[in-house]
Model the fold of this input.
Amino acid sequence: MAEGSAKSDCIVGVDLGGTKILSGVFNHSLECVGTAKLSTKSQRGVDKVVERIGRCVQDAIDEADLTIKQIAGVGIGAPGAVDFSSGTVIFAPNMEGWKEVPLKKELEKFLGVPVFVENDCNISSLGVYVAELKSKPRSMVGIFVGTGIGGGLIINGDLYSGANHTAGEIGHMVLEVSGPKCGCGNKGCFEALASRTAIFQQIKAGIKDGQKTILTEMLGNDLEDLRSGDLRKAIRRGDKFVDRIIESASEYIGIATANLINILNPEVVVLGGGVIEALADEMMSVITETAKDYAMPGTMKGVEIIPSKLGDNAGITGAAVLARKETK
Ligand SMILES: [Zn+2]
Done:
């Protein structure tokens, strides 16, 4: 029975996204021993999505040859605003009908183990901090550029959540007062200037205005299947139009990075998310140079700005770290 009891401290981390659910089972050394993936299908309604999260957790446990009895807890990174104490998703803009969803309560009923819910970018930052930064700095800022832009702040070795548990909403830092409208209602938010959504909008608007790009040759005029990887291919084939748009997005990311360095002076800034993953070689030097231009003298000394290598695993790892911390 010794083996069984050793395994009972396994935990599950879940990354809940607008299009897919990822889950991973982690052992006591935080090694991933089983994963599963399901599409979210948020159009089917909240109850069905909760059920799918439960199924995805069970699939990963099955994959690891374990049973739910051997799981101490489940951590979940959810997109949008989360009330951590009640485990309620207050609002998730990329998920249909997700307002005031008591995710912790519903999933605990479904799975029969403790569940902890936190914002997805906070969770990813925690994952990067624990699993990727071997030097264990005291402070780190995570910036995740994907469909939107989110972030997480690690201060004194712990996730900083603020007075109302909403800290780290760096995607809504205003960088251009008269800039494009953001999903939050403001104008010129970081997210409205440099997210994948913003980049794709700029590309589509440019094509409408008659700009020439290899992308239409690659994908046709409507660019329905456009992905971040296509932008990398276009730039490597010498596409000046795409190159300019990515350079502009990189500059905004650099400015946001400088603002954060001026305010927090972290030891490390980690950049992640689908856009950075696909375009790190094209973007990182512009981001770093722009950050140096905008940071106050002396603040950048020794500060590292690096791309994350964890990719999709940042979310499930961070969620597992949270569950481990809360079940200890
Ligand atoms: Zn905004």
